[in-house]
Amino acid sequence: MVMQKIDDYFELTARGTTVLTEFRGAIATFLTMAYILAVNPRILSDSGGGCDYGEGGPFSPEYEICLEETKRQMVVATALTSCIACLIMGLWANLPIALSCGMGMNAFFTYNVVGFRGFGNVSYGAALSAVLIEGIVFFILAVTGARYWIIKTFIPEPVRLATPAAIGAFLAHLGLQSAEGLGIVVGDIATAVTLGGCSPDRRTPLVAFDAACQADSANCLTSDNYTCDSLGGQMESPTAWIGIAGMLVMVILLAYKFNSSFIIGIGFVTVISWFRGTAVSYFTDDSLGNARFEYFKEVVAVESLSKVTAKWDFSEASGSDYAVALITLLYVDFLDTSGTMLAIVSSMGLVDENGDFPKSRAAFSTDALATVIGSFFGMSPLTAYIESAAGVEAGSRTGLTSVFVAFFFFLSIFFAPILSSVPAWATGGSLIIVGALMCRSLADVKWANPAHAFCAFVTVIVMPLTYSIAYGLIAGIGSWLVIRAVAFPLNYFFGIPDPTVLEVVEKKETPDAEGAKDVEVPEGSFKDDNEA
After folding, report:
1. Cβ–Cβ contacts within 10 Å for residue 19, how many?
2. From CA 508, how far away is CA 279, in angstroms rounded?
3. The overall pTM is greater than 0.85
């Protein structure tokens, strides 16, 4: 009787699946995306969370310990919010789509909005209020069905297609640096960035040489940014090489379609880094390393969420920086969720000729609700995960898979001591690989059209080089608007073809072009003489 009710509720028979198949698909999905439990807390804790500088400043031992406690709580918060989101998706939308904090959006939240250890222009509490508002707005758009109209009307096609790849480049940039990755790319006084990979004893910190620093070196503000040029030792760091080895393990396993590739690669490096007294040990012989090791030995623990829960601050929710953060979060979440869900549901054959699918409003509303809930627990926006495709490939067809994934995330709540002890060099390779996989969207850019190519390219290149998703979007959309502003009057008043518009031109079949397919070319001057 119970099995029949489960079958009827989740439409198992109607979609040609079984409980066992859904469970197997859930395992594949969870193992593929479980890296977020280690990566997300590490990124978000870099914002400083609710930690105060105090008298010691943002690099004092007291502040470092507060950051460690915040990261531990964010492990629990990540698992908890992912659990709730997946459960809602499974029970309401009945789709095998798992959700968690979005990669790229968490980096934007930390490094562009709040800033590293709070050095940005928006406070942690104000940024969480922006996440809350973004979730509410997204929910309204999802319920009313306005999302498709907005995408088609306001977002240029080349920018829309380039955004995932641009965020991927940004993530890869993070994975190559020290704070969140391998430490291969470091700072340089002359060229901004250069090759690094040097050991800690050969790192020369870079400081902000402002007036206060010039007057008294004790006032110089240091950070995690450093260079290897002064003392040398490039690519001699053991942690950099073990991180590279782990990344290669992940790539090779992915090439052979192992669903747990990320977990194996990260686990391989992590376990090696847990041995004390080695050159790659995460538990260094100092006060911070000792504190990490004492917490690690607990294995199972239930963390409080006092440092991350209900930290909204609407008193500072104003100004241009806040507005840019809010709009960018909404835009990126909007595109990321739409693209991911359509890709996964399309692979299941559920998308109709209008680009819609069953319970689409419930699915998008779930994403929005998850973001609202996540903001309460100190998280950046939650979104649908493309890793859910691993479950679909294993046979998942219903929301029962999402319910099982929610259960796996629930179990993860109790293992914060283990999950918070994953070092940056273990997860840095995963950021680079995820960034590479996100570049697939560039295949659909109309590179033969200079207008499309340029707008897509500046979006991709500006985002990582300025360390800002917002600036990348502004560059791409702004370039497109300028080109259209010139093209529109020329087309309207003088009949000159608009170079941003594409038309399908049918090639004539010739012996030299046998089997050639239709191609898209710009109108007017971009046609070949033989096709005119």
Report:
1. 15
2. 65
3. no
